[in-house]
Amino acid sequence: MKTPDRHLTTVFSYYRDAEMRGATLLLRLCSMCGPGDMQSALSRHIMDETRHAWLWTKRIMDMGGVVESLDDGYQRRIGREGLPRTLFDIFALTVVVEQRAFTRYQQHLARPDVDEETRKTLQSVSADETWHIGWIESAAKEMARAQGDPTLYDQAIAKYQVIDEKVTQELLQHERNLFGFCYADPFKPEDLEIARRNRARWQSEAAQSMELPGVKAAVAQALAGA
């Protein structure tokens, strides 16, 4: 059995986590908005986010990998910097978050070392992001105008872009530290050699741990008889 690429399965778990937590944020928006077209737009947006999360889940499963449960992903780190409290601030933050998702997917897609199935997934999720950014941006700008100061939008976006940049740089460095390079960085030929060495190490680790399921079963049996 082919050993899954842990770099990719980890990255895809981060993508999945961001999409799932994005859907959670949108659900919060639903409870804050009254009836009307905004509820319809939010429903479609939530559908897209959950579909994206499933596509990344399926990609991990198809690679033979394991989906990781994360507590240090992009959305969680953004929240630690300070959660927005008003409807307008949540919309402004969502604009920045969606822009970051699109940028990250495009950076990954631009690399020549992307396998075909991953390329298809990246293209599929990216196709929705333009609409996400557009309608959320329009709604946030309208809210700022309704408050009598259109510049409130630019101020809020600038505030959340600072947070986004800090969190993004932390995550990029975390990925580089773990695997030797980052899929958001421009491709370098030496990345292929780093990936080859990683795969060889993971295959060796997988071979050494082949008996672990049997050990686990034996422990479970012993505990059952205790």
Task: Provide a descriptive summary of the structure in words.
- It is a single chain.
- This protein has 226 residues and is mainly α.
- The chain has eight helices and no strands.
- It is elongated, with a radius of gyration of 21 Å.
- The model has no long low-confidence stretch (mean pLDDT 90).
- The chain has helices at 6-32, 37-62, 74-80, 87-109, 116-146, 151-179, 190-208, 212-224.
Main attributes?
226 residues, mainly alpha, Ferritin, 77% helix
Beginning-to-end CA distance, first to last residue? 36 Å
Identify the quaternary structure here.
Answer: single chain
Query: Would you tell me which CATH topology applies?
Result: Ferritin
- Global shape: elongated
- The number of strands is 0
CATH architecture: Up-down Bundle
Helix content estimate: over 70%
Low-confidence stretches: none
Main sheet attributes: strand count, strand direction, barrel closure: none
- Let me know the CATH homologous superfamily: Ferritin, core subunit, four-helix bundle
Q: What's the level 1 CATH class?
A: Mainly Alpha
User: Average pLDDT value?
Assistant: 90
Number of helices: 8
What order do the helices and strands follow? HHHHHHHH
Number of discrete domains: 1
Strand content: under 5%
Evaluate the radius of gyration.
21 Å
